[in-house]
Design a protein that fits this description.
It is built from 14 helices and no strands. The chain has 279 residues and is mainly α. It has one domain: Orthogonal Bundle (ABC transporter involved in vitamin B12 uptake, BtuC), CATH 1.10.3470. Helix 2 crosses helix 12, helix 3 packs across helix 4 and helix 11 runs parallel beside helix 14. The longest helix is centred in the N-terminal third of the chain and has 27 residues. The termini are far apart. The model has no long low-confidence stretch (mean pLDDT 81).
Length: 279
């Protein structure tokens, strides 16, 4: 590991951003695992690309702000739209999400040939956290802090809605609002990780940490704080190793988190594949 690189201000900023994004998204991954909607996260992550393409098409340039707002607009439109369509009880939410996401993605592909900045889109597809700027830091920290605050304040009604929506409604919990809120926070978490891992790999940060913790413990609270710890530490370690391994930090983050998941799957004291079962 190049110790001189650690003293580089740009590298230090990348480490701090990776740690915070990893923790915030790792914390929120607990809701994704409990809700069992990892495929929905994958769909929404791919929806951000046409949003970025639309932002470039309308403004004629690629910047942090039009990429951020374009990605957020597209993901919110598709995510909340699928929730609204599912309210009619005729089409399931997963089906509605599949239809809307593929239509949006097709529209984004149709726009790509009309853009002059197609090469620059690679940074938003796979992330470029070393090049993180002040704007990206404020976006990541602002969204992460907001997500952590709201989820902790509304932890009980959110969990009650996820597990027993009928009981939650009987107790006066605004179930419909909570459902929209969860999707909106999910979209914000995805957008906050754009600079770190990009559209394609952002699903890794929002699924893997809590999935790893679920193999190590049955405590629900551990999914959130344990997921945050794994996401934050794993992201920082991955950025440190990326220079030594000669790979981009974004893929390195997802690879490290994936290796931690595999290790938990194999050696978990309770559920590990290679762990002797206790009677």
């Amino acid at each position: 590991m190049d110790l001189e690189l650690i003293h580089n201000p740009f590298y230090q900023r990348a480490l701090a951003t990776a740690g915070f994004i990893g923790f915030a998204n790792g914390f929120f991954s607990g809701f994704v695992v409990l809700r069992r909607n990892a495929l929905s996260v994958s769909a929404l992550s791919h929806t951000m690309l046409p949003g970025i393409a639309l932002g470039i098409f309308l403004t004629g340039a690629l910047s942090q702000w039009n990429a951020f707002f374009g990605a957020m607009f597209a993901a919110l439109l598709v995510g909340l739209g699928s929730v609204a369509v599912a309210r009619g009880n005729r089409v399931e939410q997963g089906t509605a999400l599949a239809v809307l996401y593929t239509a949006a993605f097709a529209a984004g592909i149709a726009l790509l040939p009309k853009l002059d900045t197609r090469q620059e889109l690679e940074h938003w597809l796979f992330g470029d956290i070393i090049a993180v700027g002040n704007t990206d830091i404020w976006i990541a920290f602002g969204i992460g802090a907001f997500t952590l605050l709201i989820t902790n304040l509304l932890m009980r009604p959110i969990l009650l809605t996820l597990f027993e929506s009928n009981v939650a409604a009987a107790q006066g919990v605004p179930v419909r609002f909570i459902q929209y809120l969860i999707f909106a926070l999910l979209v914000l978490a995805l957008v906050s990780s754009l600079q770190a891992v990009g559209c394609v790999l952002s699903v890794g940060l929002l699924v893997t940490p809590a999935a790893t913790v679920s193999l190590l413990t049955d405590r629900t609270s551990a999914l959130f704080w344990g997921g945050g710890l794994i996401g934050g530490v794993g992201s920082v370690v991955a950025v440190l190793l990326s220079g030594t391994l000669g790979i981009a930090p974004g893929p390195a983050i997802v690879i490290v988190l994936g290796l931690l998941f595999i290790a938990a799957y194999l050696f978990s004291p309770k559920y590990g594949l290679l762990t002797p079962r206790r009677r």
